[in-house]
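Researcher: Next sequence.
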Amino acid sequence: MSLDEPEPVWVALRLLIVVVSLSLLVLGVRVAVSRRVPGVWSRFARLTESQRSQPVRLGGNVALLGASQLVQQTPFLVPVPHPVGDALFAVALLLVVAAMAWFVLVRR
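Model: Next structure:
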């Protein structure tokens, strides 16, 4: 599949996923580096005090999940050979596992 496929709804959905995952990646890195959880997250997700005190844990987790989605959507938007697409899918799965490990292992 590529951008020239006949169904424009799928292309729009994939581009939306790329935009959302890119914003998650940027926001997660920002939270992890600045060590401040945005107030919107606290209100929207109803984070407890212990969760708000761990911005590196939350930001890193969100950044890894955003990167995973971004890598997973790459073969659908950019023409790549099939083995490269399989490798990118494996990298996306590894990023999801890394996000779970990050959330479990990074404690303050």
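Model: Residues 31 and 51 are 13 Å apart (CA to CA). The radius of gyration is 16 Å.
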